[in-house]
């Protein structure tokens, strides 16, 4: 093998490695102009197809917590298609509206707002709400409780 080929392989494999997997799911969201806090704490791993944007995010268990007056539930595996500022065909996240669990199908950024869409309706929240990832159970309010630490 010539030195040239060897160098090429080395550079190629290095760049593959660097551009590869070592970002957290939260960082991937931020790179796509979405706040990391739309995912709760506790991501175990994720898969992302960089071509199609199809992703799967794995948690150890289901996770639910309040957002304002709503209750939101994440299944232990969620999936969807990631684009800049938008997640489409989201699977595995639902919100309780009155007595019913409704599937959140889309999340998108609208300026300083994050819209959570359930198909026929959507609800806007300030991006600032999602600066920190919520924790299962107490959600975003845990931070107020522990912020003195
Ligand atoms: C890459 O990810 C692995 C597993 O999450 C971690 O152990 C390692 O420290 C990371 N490396 C860098 C350079 O971030
Ligand atoms: C998920 O569960 C495994 C095995 O019980 C544990 O080692 C790991 O720390 C857990 N990960 C998270 C993010 O809770």
From TrEMBL:
SUPFAM superfamilies referenced in this protein's UniProt entry, alphabetically: At5g01610-like
Keyword Signal: yes
Protein origin, superkingdom: Eukaryota
Signal peptide: 1-20
InterPro entries from the UniProt entry: At5g01610-like (IPR036758), DUF538 (IPR007493)
Pfam families: DUF538 (PF04398)
Record has Oxidoreductase as a keyword: no
Keywords: Signal
UniProt protein name: Transmembrane protein
Organism: Arabis nemorensis
């Amino acid at each position: 093998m010539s030195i040239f080929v060897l160098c090429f392989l080395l550079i190629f494999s290095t760049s593959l490695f660097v551009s590869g997997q070592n970002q957290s799911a939260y960082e991937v969201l931020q790179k796509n102009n979405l706040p990391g806090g739309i995912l709760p704490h506790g991501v175990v791993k994720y898969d992302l197809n960089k071509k199609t944007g199809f992703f799967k995010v794995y948690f150890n268990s289901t996770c639910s917590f309040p957002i304002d007056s709503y209750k939101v539930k994440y299944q232990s595996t969620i999936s969807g298609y990631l684009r800049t500022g938008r997640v489409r065909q989201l699977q595995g996240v639902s919100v309780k509206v009155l007595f019913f669990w409704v599937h959140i199908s889309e999340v998108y950024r609208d300026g300083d707002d994050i819209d959570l869409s359930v198909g026929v309706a959507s609800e806007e929240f300030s991006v600032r709400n999602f600066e920190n990832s919520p924790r299962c159970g107490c959600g975003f309010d845990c931070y107020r409780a522990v912020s003195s630490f």
